[in-house]
C-alpha cells in the first residue's frame, strides 16, 4: 500500500509539473483575443481587418490553435475581416471533459458565423477540420460563401468508427492519474516535434517558437486529453461523402506538391463532387500556408 500510494503521488506530481512547465511561457496568451460564449464552452478568437469576412479554422489536434495562421492572417486582413478561431478543446478555448464529435465542431462553426460574423462567410480550413466545415455547410449552406480546404483528410478515413479497443483505450484515458500520464507521454515535447515536423517538406521550417506554442496548446485547459482521446479513438470521424455531394458552394482544395496523399485526396473529392477545383502549391507538404505562404496567398487571391 505504501509503494502504491507513493507511486500514485509521484505520477500525479509528474503530471502537474509537466503541465505547469508547458504553459509557463504563456506564448498563446500574449496577443489579445475575443471570446464567444458557446453552450459547450467559451471559444477564443481573433478578429483583424475590414472587408468581406473570412473564417480560418485550424487543424483539429491537441497541439493546434489559431496560431497556425500566423503567416497569412495579416495579409488577408488588408482586404478582408479575418476571424481566426481556437476550436473547442484547442488553444485558449475551453477544454471540457466530454466526447468531441464531428457534429459538435460543425455546430460550433455554424453558431460562430451566425452569432459573431453575422453574414455569409468564406471559410478556410486546414487538415481534418475540412470534414467539420463540409458538415457545417450541409447543415446551413446560407452561412457559407466559398469553402477552401487545405490538405483535407482522405474521404476513406472518415469511415473509421470506434471499436472495442478504441472504447477501452478511451476509458483508460478518462482515468485521472493513469490517463493524464498516458496523455503527457503522447504529447511529450519530442513527440509533438516528430509528429508535426513529419508534415513539413523542409523540417527546418517548423521552428522552435512554433514547437513551444504547440507544446503549450497541448497542455492548457481543464481536460486537453478529452479531445486527444476523441481523435485517436475515431469519435471525430464521419463519412461526409453524401454531404459533399449535396453542396453547391464553390469548393477549392489546396495541396502541397510533396504531400504524398494529395492526388488521392483530390480524386476522391472530385469523384464525389466534380465541381471541386484544386491548386497545388510548390515547395510544401501539408502546410502550404506556412511553408510557402507567398505562393499560397497569390493562388488564394484568385478565389476570394
UniProtKB/TrEMBL annotation:
<protein>
    <recommendedName>
        <fullName>AB hydrolase-1 domain-containing protein</fullName>
    </recommendedName>
</protein>
<feature type="domain" description="AB hydrolase-1">
    <location>
        <begin position="54"/>
        <end position="297"/>
    </location>
</feature>
<dbReference type="InterPro" id="IPR029058">
    <property type="entry name" value="AB_hydrolase_fold"/>
</dbReference>
<dbReference type="Pfam" id="PF12697">
    <property type="entry name" value="Abhydrolase_6"/>
</dbReference>
<dbReference type="InterPro" id="IPR000073">
    <property type="entry name" value="AB_hydrolase_1"/>
</dbReference>
Amino acid at each position: 500500500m505504501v509503494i502504491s500510494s507513493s507511486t500514485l503521488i509521484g505520477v500525479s506530481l509528474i503530471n502537474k509539473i509537466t503541465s505547469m512547465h508547458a504553459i509557463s511561457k504563456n506564448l498563446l496568451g500574449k496577443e489579445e483575443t475575443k471570446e464567444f460564449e458557446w453552450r459547450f464552452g467559451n471559444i477564443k478568437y481573433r478578429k483583424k481587418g475590414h472587408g468581406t469576412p473570412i473564417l480560418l479554422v485550424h487543424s483539429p489536434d491537441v497541439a493546434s490553435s489559431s496560431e497556425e495562421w500566423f503567416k497569412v492572417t495579416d495579409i488577408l486582413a488588408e482586404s478582408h475581416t479575418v476571424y481566426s478561431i481556437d476550436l473547442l478543446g484547442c488553444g485558449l478555448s475551453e477544454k471540457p471533459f466530454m466526447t468531441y464529435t464531428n457534429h459538435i465542431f460543425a455546430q460550433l462553426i455554424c453558431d460562430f458565423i451566425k452569432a459573431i460574423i453575422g453574414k455569409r462567410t468564406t471559410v478556410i480550413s486546414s487538415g481534418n477540420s475540412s470534414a467539420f466545415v463540409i458538415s457545417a455547410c450541409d447543415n446551413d449552406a446560407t452561412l457559407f460563401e466559398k469553402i477552401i480546404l487545405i490538405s483535407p483528410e482522405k474521404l476513406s478515413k472518415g469511415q473509421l468508427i470506434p471499436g472495442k479497443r478504441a472504447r477501452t483505450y478511451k476509458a483508460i484515458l478518462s482515468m485521472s492519474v493513469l490517463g493524464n500520464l498516458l496523455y503527457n507521454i503522447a504529447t511529450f515535447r519530442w513527440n509533438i516535434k516528430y509528429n508535426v515536423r513529419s508534415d513539413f517538406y523542409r523540417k527546418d521550417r517548423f521552428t522552435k517558437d512554433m514547437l513551444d506554442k504547440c507544446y503549450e496548446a497541448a497542455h492548457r485547459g481543464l481536460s486537453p486529453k478529452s479531445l486527444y482521446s476523441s481523435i485517436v479513438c475515431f469519435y471525430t470521424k464521419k463519412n461526409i461523402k453524401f454531404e459533399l455531394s449535396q453542396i453547391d458552394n464553390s469548393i477549392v482544395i489546396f495541396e502541397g506538391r510533396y504531400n504524398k496523399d494529395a492526388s488521392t485526396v483530390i480524386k476522391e473529392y472530385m469523384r464525389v463532387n466534380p465541381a471541386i477545383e484544386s491548386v497545388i502549391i510548390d515547395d510544401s507538404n501539408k502546410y502550404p500556408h506556412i511553408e510557402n505562404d507567398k505562393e499560397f496567398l497569390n493562388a488564394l487571391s484568385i478565389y476570394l
